[in-house]
Amino acid sequence: MIPVTIPGPERAVSTDAVLELRGVSHTYQVRRSPFRKSVPLRAVDDVSLCVHRGEVLGLVGESGCGKSTLSKILLGLLPPSSGAVLIDGAAVSGAGQAAFARRVQPVFQDPYSSLNPRKTVAQIIGLPLAVHGVGDRAGRRQAVTAMLDCVGLPRRVLDTYPKQLSGGQRQRVAIARALIMRPEVVVCDEPTSALDVSVQAQILNLLTELRRELNLGMLMISHNLAVIEHMATWIAVMYLGRIVESGPTRAIFERPRHPYTRALLQSVLTTVPGHGIPDPLPGTAIPNPVDRPAGCAFHPRCPLATDLCRTVPPSRVADARQGGFVECHLFPAGEAEAA
Ligand SMILES: Nc1ncnc2c1ncn2[C@@H]1O[C@H](COP(=O)(O)OP(=O)(O)OP(=O)(O)O)[C@@H](O)[C@H]1O
């Protein structure tokens, strides 16, 4: 593995980086009322990140910070307004989009609504093969049967319907459907939050085993920081569309640099497991992304904000001691290197 440094603030990537965003932004046009002109809402703002083969990138942040928009861009479901999506170093656009979609697959939060109730398990898992014209009927059934073994489901479920399965079994079906095209990256958006606590660990363990066996890259979005700590190799912390801190999981949990990351982690100490991220800074509202605060977007909620924070947007600085980067004026210059 030859380390290759790429321009920008993101981690020094190695040649096993499979999926990459470079300076990606996405702006929605929203109307505040039917009588007013639409205004831009920048849901994702200049995000650069890498998903590596065999590694899990954890994405955390409060509701509305832009995680779903980012995952749609990574899945090729939403074109970025600006910036580039690269797979194996090549920018994805136009005709490459279909091949890209095959290589990056989603596992959604809710296995109750993400599976078609009128299709059998065999039809659900085999659908991507049929859509892409892979193999004949018998070959597809064989591939589906092999995939059932992979995700720990008995073969007798092949001709059953989702309603006949438990929540954990349905999520295994959803994972099998995601993997049937042999993707290189799986985007898991809250993959266990709709499941009973008793089966959550089983699904996470299954994802870990599959990641190792298939050398999969994963993006794991979760409100549950314990899940992220357990699963992720690297973490990106998102606030109002920007990645404000990024680094190796252990370093982020042991030595968070950004005041927002610290608040997020502290709020978890007071939460009930499985109930998501509570307000990390009680009494302070998340600003409306249509009216982004001047300077650092976090300053209205930051207990340490200075005049500089209120007026000048912080630049990203590489964290020389633990890798990754931080976007905060308060990050000590002695620990940083300009990115
Ligand atoms: N289709 C859309 N049109 C207009 N605005 C949108 C659209 N989708 C999302 N937004 C806005 O973009 C911002 C980011 O939303 P997004 O759903 O990506 O965040 P999120 O972190 O995934 O939130 P959650 O955890 O609640 O799903 C929010 O302010 C949201 O209201």
From TrEMBL:
PANTHER family: D,D-DIPEPTIDE TRANSPORT ATP-BINDING PROTEIN DDPF-RELATED, TRANSPORT ATP-BINDING PROTEIN. Keywords: ATP-binding, Nucleotide-binding, Transport. Gene3D superfamilies: P-loop containing nucleotide triphosphate hydrolases (3.40.50.300). The lineage of its organism: Bacteria, Pseudomonadati, Pseudomonadota, Alphaproteobacteria, Rhodospirillales. This is ABC transporter ATP-binding protein. It is a peripheral membrane protein. It is found in: Cell inner membrane. It comes from Azospirillum argentinense. Belongs to the ABC transporter superfamily. It comes from the Bacteria. CDD domains: ABC_NikE_OppD_transporters. GO terms for molecular function: ATP binding. Signal peptide: none annotated. NCBIfam families: oligo_HPY. Residues 19-265 form the ABC transporter domain.
